[in-house]
TrEMBL record, chains A, B:
One of its GO terms (biological process) is glutathione metabolic process. GO terms for cellular component: cytoplasm. This is Maleylacetoacetate isomerase. Keywords: Isomerase. One of its GO terms (molecular function) is glutathione transferase activity. InterPro entries: Glutathione-S-Trfase_C-like, Glutathione-S-Trfase_C_sf, Glutathione_S-Trfase, Glutathione_S-Trfase_N, GST_Zeta, GST_Zeta_C, GST_Zeta_N, Thioredoxin-like_sf. The keyword Chaperone does not apply. Residues 1-82 form the GST N-terminal domain. Belongs to the GST superfamily. Zeta family. Residues 87-212 form the GST C-terminal domain. CDD domains: GST_C_Zeta, GST_N_Zeta.
Amino acid sequence: MTLYGYWRSSAAYRVRIAMAIKGIDCEQRAVHLVKDGGEQHGPVYRALNPAELVPTLVDGELVLSQSLAIMEYLEETQGGPALLPSNPAERARVRAFCQDIACDIHPVNNLRVLQYLQGELGLSDGQKDDWYRHWLAVGFRALEQRLEASAGRYAFGDTLTLADCCLVPQVYNARRFKVDMAPYPTLNAVCARLEALDAFIAAAPEHQLDAH
Amino acid sequence: MTLYGYWRSSAAYRVRIAMAIKGIDCEQRAVHLVKDGGEQHGPVYRALNPAELVPTLVDGELVLSQSLAIMEYLEETQGGPALLPSNPAERARVRAFCQDIACDIHPVNNLRVLQYLQGELGLSDGQKDDWYRHWLAVGFRALEQRLEASAGRYAFGDTLTLADCCLVPQVYNARRFKVDMAPYPTLNAVCARLEALDAFIAAAPEHQLDAH
């Protein structure tokens, strides 16, 4: 298997965490999202992923995009600790938490959207940061409430799930934008416990070969 | 079971299609997203869903948000036709297609984002429409390429999947914003076949009790 990603992409970071927890050995290839206008827009990567986004997983014949789909695929085909509960209602709640991040928080704040806001719409750095922090706050407020009901040591009780794989990269991203994290004590506590785990350390952006 | 939705919400529309295909009988409650500043922001709905978004499914003790999580929950717990293939690689491709829509196209163009663009950032109607059409075009260009490889009668071969449940509402939404659909012949052909099916007709926005 080969994973195409970028050290700072929070979507790729999710998949790296899931792989590290499961102990999956996978070749990593870097797609530089900024250099030369973004390698994701070049013909080589576009042939793999017409959406021009990372990550992409290649497993034999299968070329798969979308971090959540990739993690579910790994869950269904690879060994290691399960990252979804076996009970359907619990699985659903974990998936919904992941989608709160992957569908509602991350997409409005990813690189291409911020580039459009500043390029096409001419927003200042301050307005761009306000945009980012607004959607982050709206999203984290809801996550904090969900975690108050679901969290143990981790996002759902004391067992690692895909929710944890999504949470840490989004918090990492928020810190880059200097979001005030004080209103989210449960989220912060869960995140601190996760970030101390070996799998999360190994998957962290700073520990990737393409980090700089 | 009770589904909280809104006739024009494309996320709620996805779930209605899946329910109609599976023949699930479910009470529908309308959450008016525009009236009085939006009922989704009121205390009654917020207690159900702190993210203040539709849809929400209530099934006994379970209160579940996120359209994709709801559809996977229905897939795992209810009868009727399966909407995910049994092969893991095929399941993954269907999920990725759903996420292309639910994570990459829809979130940057949903009501709250368009409201922020016009309210906080003061965009004109024309600039707002340009924003919408830009992200739609970026997303549909990738979907068209995916469909060229995967489509039969429907998005993945000749069997209905969750991908079809996501595709039709996004096209419905695009038409509202008068997006030029000419560049997407495969997508259009699949969509036309889907829209002729009873389940898709029953789930259409105009056929909901709260439509007006």
